[in-house]
Structure formats: structure tokens, C-alpha cells
Amino acid sequence: MFSLKKTAKGVADAMYPPVCVHCHTRIPLQEVWLCGDCYEKLNYIPEQRCPKCGYPTEEAECSNCWENHYVFTQAQSVFLYEGSARSMVQELKYNGFTHIADWFANQMYKLIFEDKTMENIDFVTAVPLHRVRRRERGFNQSDLIALSLADKLNKPFTDKALIRKEYTVSQTILDGKSRRKNLRDAFKVGRTDLKDKSILLIDDVFTTGTTVNEAARTLKQAGVKDVYVITACHGL
Q: What is the extent of the structural domain holding 27?
């Protein structure tokens, strides 16, 4: 079976040679996803960042937190949402390169391992898609990342903590105020054993933080003690 899979992969690579998902130059293995140059250009979130929302800042008070009134316990992101990292997210979400989810999970695991803050959680979950959008896309990219990360952390994963009850327009086309209005009451709790739990909530991109904040608000209203958020990228 292994040899058949290996042969099939070899044929596929010959017909469709692996290329960097950002600059589209040839690379040795599809699992690498980025060429050396594009990998080197990945922009990690700097150490000087807000301890609450993860926003890159050197200021003592975070303007992002002041504007958005976050209820989650803490949020962190791995990369800035630009260049190579942005291409990785888009290939995962829109072109079905689902194995990229595991690559992002590896990057998140390194961040958690180095920081230690998010280690003491009870389970891992993800920001849900509405059932219509999930059917259109075929998967929830945040679920895939969360499932892989939970396995690396040796923590249980559930996709039942939250349900997206409203089919909302894409947040990417809205400003901050419209984003908050768009997601108001968009989520509901999907399971009841949440009281006093600490949850790690996963999403792909933190832009204004509205989506993860509304999800966290719903969880907190159900009695959740702490909601820690980690995303692959932070958009500025």
C-alpha cells in the first residue's frame, strides 16, 4: 500500500511539480510549501506585542484593546498576515491545500511551548463556520488547525463547543464597527459542560479580533473560566 501511494505521489509530482505557494517557483517536496527565500521572509509577530491581544506595539497601552474591549483572556498570533503567510492561509482556505493546517499547527505549538501561558487548558476548539459556508467550502480550516494542534498538545478537541447560528457576510469586506454588528449574536453554545473550563480557541486570522471576541463572549456567558485565543496570522 505504501509503495502504491509513493508511486502515485511520484506520478502526481511529475504531472504537477510541487511549487512554492507564494512565488510559484519549483520546490523539492509539496510538504515544504514554501521555497527557501519565501520561508525566510515569513514575518513572525515581534516580541514587543500587547500581552492581551497580541497586537504588535511598543506602547504601554494598546490602542487595539482600547478600541475593541476584548473579553477573551489572552490572544496570540504567529505571523503577520502578509506575504508568504498570507499566501499559505489563502491556499488552505480557498484552494483546498488542507495539509497546510498541520504546518500552521506546528507553528502554533512552538509558540505555546515557548510562552507556557496557554498550557493549562481543558480542551481545544475552533471558531465555527455556518453550515452553509462549511458545505460550500467542504471543510472548516480552523477546525483542521485546531484538531492537529490538540493532538500535538495531547488535549481533547471538540467541534461542539460553539455553533454559528447566523449566516453572516464575510468580515473581510467590513470596517470595525460593521464587523461587530455583523457578528452580534452570531454564535450559540453547542455543549453544556463548559462551566469553569479553560478553552483554547483557534482561528486562522486575527484582524480586528471581532470574530474571536464574539465567540469568547458566548463561551464566557456559558460559564467558561478562560478563553485563550491563538491564530495563525494577525492582520494590521
A: 1-41
